[in-house]
Structure formats: C-alpha cells, structure tokens
Amino acid sequence: MRVYSSLWNADNWATNGGLVKIDWTAAPFVAYYRRFRARACKWNGPVSISQCAIPSKANRWTSNVYKQLTMSQQGQLKWVRDNDMIYNYCTDFKRFKGQMAPECSKPQY
Which ranges carry the Xyloglucan endo-transglycosylase C-terminal domain (predicted)? Predict the structure, then answer.
C-alpha cells in the first residue's frame, strides 16, 4: 500500500476567491507522515469487498470506535475547520454548478 500527495496552485479559486495567496517563496514544500501504519483489506477480487465489511478482529476498521467521532473529536474537528480551513469544495456551489460530490451529502460533523 502507498500514500500519495500532491500540491497544486489553487490561488485563483480555492483560497477565498483568490484572497489568500500561497507563499511560493517558502518552496520547496515538504510533507511527511508520522507514525503512519497502513491497514487495509487485501483485494482478492469482487468477493473480498464484502468480506472486508464483516465485523471481525481482522477487520478492525469495522468496529464501533471508527463509526463516529466522539464529542471531543467533533470539537477538535470544528476548531480546525473554524481556524485553519479556507476552502470547502462541498460549499462551492458556483464552481460545481450545484453538482456536488456524493460525500458532501454525508454528515459533516
């Protein structure tokens, strides 16, 4: 399993309509993952998808602890959104002409 990231210039649309500019003088930008351990269900064809959803010790991501954020976690997420998030594609109705991604209809906490 691999994790990929990308960086792209969205100065003109994803930063409060171009009001917040990226400081390119700080480049090159570096990101790293600390204490990252990839855990996944091995793909063995279409049948394995349903096996990955069965609650079991092997499928720890199906346990109740991962089904919903705690009140404390919801508060932490709200703080980050309120203080650090400058763009949310789920509220960008103009750019996407009302055709929002399916995940935007899910609870946003």
Answer: 57-104
